[in-house]
Amino acid sequence: MSRIAKRFAETRAxxxxxxxxxxxAGDPAPGVTVALMHDLVAAGADLLELGVPFSDPMAxxxxxxxxxxxxxxxxxxxxxxxxxxxxxxxRDRDTPVVLMGYLNPVERMGSEAFAExxxxxxxxxxxxxxxxxxxSADLSGLLERVGIEPxxxxxxxxxxxxxxxxxAAARGFIYYVSLKGVTGSRSLDTNELGARLGPIRAxxxxxxxxxxGIRDAETxxxxxxxxxxVVVGSAIVRLVEEFPEAPEQFRAAASALVREMRTAMDAxxxxxxxxxx
Amino acid sequence: MxxxxxxxxxxxxxxxFGPYGGRFVAETLMGALDELQAVYEKYINDPExxxxxxxxxxxxxxxxxxxxxxxxxTRELGGAQIYLKREDLNHTGAHKVNNTIxxxxxxxxxxxxxxIAETGAGQHGVATATVAARxxxxxxxxxxxxxxxxxxxxxxxMRLLGADVxxxxxxxxxxxxxxxxxxxxxxxxxxxxxxIIGTVAGPHPYPAMVRDFQSVIGREARAQHLEMTGRLPxxxxxxxxxxxxxxxxxxxxxxxxxxxxxxVEAGGEGVATGRHSAPLCAGRPGVLHGNRTYLMEDDNxxxxxTHSISAGLDYPGVGPEHSWxxxxxxxxxxxxxxxxxxxxxxRLTRTEGIIPALETSHAVAHVLxxxxxxxxDQSLIINLSGRGDKDLNTIARLEGIEx
Lengths: 277, 403
What we know:
heterodimer, A: 277 residues, TIM Barrel, B: 403 residues
């Protein structure tokens, strides 16, 4: 069983939704990232999403664009990010790590070299925002050979025909983009969310993670009632800007936010429990 | 003997030109691209649509544009007969409007109420704002903050036409960042918004669709040259940023094996300096803005900043069909520096009484070298893709004059 499958089996068994914080690797500085990853796990993260910085993050809002610019100013490369996962794994063998980014740095490194290095470092999943299932067969094959699960997005605009494609190509979990927009956008409608997830559940056994637009503990809690996992990115990354010269304070603030979300999500599930069991 | 390529069969159903092209975008846009492809394929051969498009090109754009024999320049250079395809005479002053007219008609059929576009030099932005004004559609144009500085006349034109021009301050603050921002807008407003991409790049079906709308240039030029001389030209020369004016001229000639095709990229301060915008001459294949194509990137796959005196060529990628034509050897790609383009700008202005855009001046610059190497019974066509009025501030400033 993959590390991702094992982790979702555990969260399901405990009746809780998984919490997946996203941070951009190398932001605010490369030396901060591994310590931050351990902090987030200690604060209640079940899986981690590690953003690979890219010069042209087309699907990201201003918060993650700036995070990419900060990380790139330090020269953070894809090889560096893989190195961070390798270091993280020295102390944490259990928490799944998903790399999230764009295709071009992977192609430049070479798909095969990337798959081998990432697999050896202990990467569990790869989500490339601009690589839809239609174009993914070659890379997915290479990733699966080294035990890495290709993760794909489903959006509110995904047709039922495409949903079949995505469900067939996806491994690990499906990442449902909760709104039409870039990362960090406002106004996630959690009421509609449950209805949106139904047709996806009918097609796949994979856990459904929901992300984009989850800004606070209250929203995270509402999403946790209907989703298997809650992904939080910009709300955490935004905190870097609050403590530009103080990475320690940023780490503490990020941990506090994750802890707050964890508590709110678990409370929401507990409240639901009698009704759903 | 090489197998003849059926050029009309490309791209394939998923938008590939050999290894290039495709559709590399976030999932949220896949549905909109499917919808666009369906409406495009439905109407491109629909007689009623084609008639409406042709009427607009005739009555609103002013087509056909003349094919003009540049007699003085030809005489001075002492080689091939030089013909200019006068896209600068189109309404709005460049070839860009051929495409915006077509895409706007599709937007209307899709019932979209809002148009967005990216622009570099502002020519595509103006052409988009123009068709949006004509159809009464809301229009937002994304433009790099740096480009807004160097192309202020076009910014004012867009605003006069009712467009909201948004300054893009991320990244290198030029065309590529404007494209990123337009994509982000489209993801966020996909239900009511039509994204009019201005070049033959982006996710499928844009490279094919924009090419088809721009191919009117080559169809006309081919017929005009045949009528004027009784034969085909020996060479076609066009500047290449994203490559829409070049592909528009080249495509109808692809099966004419005797016709050489030369795309001229922006060499900036010289390809050897690294400060240029010439991915076909000095880049390598990668994935950006929805398609696989030649790119300017560093060793880590990050897109690097480009340099060109011409905002319209200041782009790190290029249309995927050009990448394919390069690999096949069907077209050749060269570069011309800022300084060479400037000299050509003045030369054409003084010799023929035609002020070319700085983008177009790159194509003219290459011909200053090419034409003398050809015989006088040979001929070539330059795509005179745009007029230079928008560049007067830039040129004047270089000469120490504030307008």
